[in-house]
């Protein structure tokens, strides 16, 4: 059997198993017997805790194991056959889900947006364009908090977007794959979300859990028989309590929110140090993904020391992506900064 | 927060987290960084180990997180739009997946079968019935080993079935949700499977893992771009190494096979003790599911002491289901027998 | 170029173009310009006429070009992803649409039924069987009037069935591919249908039109945005007026109903003459399909003279199908009877 | 019953029933009996005639009743679940089919193109962008001849595009809704098409038939069981001979090609007269759609006299669309020109 030496990785936030407190919770349950399919006491507790933090008793919560599953389950439930979901061109459902939404029969209609974000004018323009039965009907708006390029919606932006959706009879869905990081970097608090969208998911895979995402449904119209739909989409887990236990642990003492704060702090530290070194950034990201720009030789050298993602070419230079996670330490960030210093001097 | 007292459960084989050796493997990896999406070294090792046990170097292996996901991924990949999969009426894809196969566009064409099993005559009759383009074309045959009612295919039965499939240009697919138990109860050995089907999955969720199923593709026609298909079906796990680590542990020292043997032994023990008490059985099951028949009052009393499934009414009596797992102990089986003795005397 | 001599055909009711009055209506419109997509005046008139005959002002009517299109459009509109349609095993959507319903994502759940018909007990048993989210949810009941084997529902049967559907929150859908023939043979009148189902289609292809089926929606829940859905299913015709003109002609002077009466009269004539010759029938069909049973040699001889369908083997004999249409004449029926007389004597 | 006065229409090429020769062919067959589902002699003859004109014996031909049906049938047959079709943003399948392609599970991936046309660089860029299994795989390229905005591919353009497709293992599919007009305006001849694409459809609805499109499959890989697929998509017509008769008539004496020439001549006449009046055009279209630009008042006045389509706003003016068809006469074009002259003077 082979074992691979791996460089320290800033590639993404799903390279490490799970936060120690979550692992502990799993270990503690190792001799339990639990009912299957998410009908267990841990899942119940996780739902109670999330509802408490949301200050919302009436939302429905369902756990699935991955972001694409969450997106597929929610979007295909909400839309009728002839309806499309509106998203940014950079939206995860448009780019990085191998047509999973279309596989359930729905067009992902995209607009350019700005900084990875949609604005009310994007919605109204899209609606105006789709005038009759020869074109799809827009039924839902999909956004991410934080976005695929690390930006966040402010409260005012989200409020305006949701108002626009309500005026136009559209569902607003928030993909919260990195919700913890998004919340820690914006003036949108967790308990405000119930008034800012119809449905969202609380990402676990990218926020310190083995796997698991919690779909939260605020709008009553999206609630009936949702468990049937999850099962129909292959997203119902027999050992649902494995996800329930993790969300129970993550929401018992604000661990979920602390992980996002930790990520953001380290990313901001990295970002400010890099700027001091004169390294330009592709974008202003206040969250756990940052996009410094290096020349090609430096990228090649850096790649001998660290794992990271090549993002895109920028005028003969290369933007790369560093991602911090619950696992990332300040020490490793300092090492990285020092290695970069040596490299560029 | 509420905590629920739970009676000891013989309800199913997914009530308990995972075998201690598998938990240990997960804990050991807690400080690792691994590449995502199943491209990590643990997943590689798991594949190597499975190929070794199969004595088959050329099969493709892909891990997903649930049985329905595995079935959906395999069946919808293999079939063209107008093709159907043939299954027993009792087949899991027909009864208990909430139309997940149909949701990908394919009819599940069913025949009655015998003892939960299909026979070559079922196939040839089905083919004869589907004569032209006004009817679906049968493209794949779906069976389970062990079956949904605990029976197993013998080597000769499986050989005959696969020969029939090959003669008729059909794929044969084995749902191995309980493969370990099925193998331990039949003369079909793991390394024979490469010659007895085109594709199968090795069940982990019901055999001592947190979750995870290993799809094994023998037929070259079913291999190209399968990773795209898994992603398209929402079944690709970002933290794929979490499943990889578990399969690595399960196949390092025959743990996977031992768990099935353990289950079957306890089920046979239960079964023979119950027969000695004069309790009739719904069927002869050599695997980890058994179906004793009690009168209704006894079922009600027993339900105060244990968790189990009500299976079906049988002439004013009730067949219930006991399932054993890696977690079940002989002590608990003896307790159960004693409680039943007290009950019926 | 080759031309084929064809024997006189009793094979089906779609072997001949269209009734002369319908052809005349088409020819009269040959120099018109009409708006596309069914928004023309002829289509409007056809809808008015149908609503008048139905004595129902509030139903929505949409024309498509084939029965499978109508079935696909209606069923996939009415059902949510995890819902199934209940049908007889012999139902057209189950047997003869090459999985078109499943291709839109829905299971066709079947029961045996009696004489090609469903009864309330079939519904209640099916509902009882589907208990939780691991199984599909029955959302709609599909029946045909007349049925695939020529039988018809009486008013009382249909009333009981629809009541049962309403009590159980199910849609009832009538496939009226041969509605004209079905109505002419039962005590169900056209204007009763509004109170006996939620949606139906009025078959044109098998009742004297070039092609075209009129979907009639009584239940308000099935109305919104239905045109979008038809387009999404590829069933919206650019030259919708071609179908509109035909339905206008068929409903102007009861032609639609007369064609069914004509068919049934000739089928009954055939049927009674054959019985007088001592020829047994597979079933009692009061509509335009009859199923006499002959020995194999006679079938072979008859096949030299006429086109007809081989239906099924019945104890070493063969049931064949004769179908009458608007085109069939009494003279040809007498010829057929005489040829059969000569054959069997 | 109401009857509507209609202004003379230049709105589109499907406002009129069918060419007199096609109507005659239909009338001549009115007393025939024909086999159903396109297995009749007329359909056979139509196929023979088309193959002769294509100088291609080995292509498969299938008739369906509408363009969306043809597109859905071909594209969903050719692509695997995770594959997308590449099209221009202006492509009919992207804009005007209400998500019908996505409804069969496939993403329509779009690029801007130029003048409604795709170029090899569009393909290679798209392929470069789609790198791994997290993104859809491009499997087919969709183009229209003529395009949605009236332009045409030259032989060299089409040759380059097809070569690019072959080098990259992609299918090239030509939507020929207006093929006759496209051919009459380009140096691509009908008999060249067999070497310039894998599959195409010959449009009938927009070229003088009641309805009907002829799918022509050149690539052997796209042939097996295609009839099953058509039926599965609800696109198989019981009275297939109704379409067969029309294509037989259209291809017997080059009528199909003459109709396109007629359309283009009148459109060119209109176009050159309008230019002489100093009216600007949105684009240079050599086919039967032209796009003159008027000020808003003139458009309103013209709309009192003629039916036409509002296309788009162009700097406070409005581009409208005139479409000519087999039905359009030179007299009516002259009338239109005169009315415009009066209007703008």
TrEMBL record, chains A, B, C, D:
Gene3D superfamilies assigned to the protein according to its UniProt record, in alphabetical order: Aspartate Aminotransferase, domain 1 (3.90.1150.10), Type I PLP-dependent aspartate aminotransferase-like (Major domain) (3.40.640.10)
Domain named Aromatic amino acid beta-eliminating lyase/threonine aldolase: residues: 20-291
Cofactor: pyridoxal 5'-phosphate
GO biological process, one term: amino acid metabolic process
Matches recorded under InterPro entries: ArAA_b-elim_lyase/Thr_aldolase, PyrdxlP-dep_Trfase, PyrdxlP-dep_Trfase_major, PyrdxlP-dep_Trfase_small
Keyword Phosphoprotein listed: no
Keyword check for Ribonucleoprotein: no
A Pfam family matched in the record: Beta_elim_lyase
Keywords: Aminotransferase, Pyridoxal phosphate, Transferase
Molecular function as annotated in GO: lyase activity; transaminase activity
SUPFAM superfamilies xref list: PLP-dependent transferases
Cited PANTHER family: L-THREONINE ALDOLASE-RELATED (PTHR48097), LOW SPECIFICITY L-THREONINE ALDOLASE (PTHR48097:SF5)
Homology family: Belongs to the threonine aldolase family.
Name of this chain's protein: Aminotransferase class V-fold PLP-dependent enzyme
